[in-house]
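Structure ticket #2291
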Amino acid sequence: MSTDTSDALVSSEWLAQHLTDPGIKILDCTWHHPSTNLDGRTQYRGRHLPGSVHFDIDQVADKSTLLPHMLPAAEDFALKVGLLGIGNSDRVVVYDRHYGGSAAARVWWMFRVFGHDNVALLDGGFGKWTKEKRPAEMTPVRPAPASFTADFKPKLVATSAGVQGQLRSGSAQLVDARGPGKFDGTQADVFTFKRQGHIPGAVNLPWADLVNPDTGVLMAPDALAARFAATGVDLGRPIVATCASGITSCMLALALYRLGVPDAAVYDGSWAEWSELDDTAAAA
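Resolution: structure written out below.
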């Protein structure tokens, strides 16, 4: 697997030049929590990048659990991605409408979990694209189905049992991507959790601290490295990223990939799962 730090991102300038390349497949990954009364698919139908199709993290998900948008089985991911017209030889570009692109980062991580490393996030997302007055369209894209084979990479996925074992042994660093209020339990989340707070032993690095506040693009590698260092994270030791429900933690994984740490794991269940377990502690 290539660990070239340029692999995880593409610029709006680059994508504008490659929009019509046959091997480029673009996914609009816009997602909103139901409490917002916004819908990513509706926004996609309003305006989207030319040629893009909508990827819904709530639909390409494990439907057997009450936890939100958990990873599906490899066979289900392969089937649904194939129906979106994506094959194993394609270069996938993901974006969304959120500042920073956390839902798109989730999809970037999902593709890597299922063995497809040829995936990149559009730096700055839909916001930067439209501010630059680049083209958008309203007509939904209905791609021809393709064949996609998934190859699950378990090292990129942390489980509750794995996290508990790593915390007992001190074998991994747990980094929480939520804002400080949600991390310390003083601010309620949009999800209804049984408990507030964070996993004991975790350190807090809010995902928004990794994004340029003016442009929504990911910080340069030296600035990213400084933020991880200030949090006390050792890039040479195993790292597990966590958050509320496995979305913003993927921004940490993307940043770490940019820093040459391609194997950082994401705790898929994150606080949504941890807060429900009877045998886990919470810290505030």
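Closing remark: Strands lie at 9-10, 24-28, 53-54, 91-95, 119-122, 157-158, 173-176, 203-204, 239-242, 265-267.
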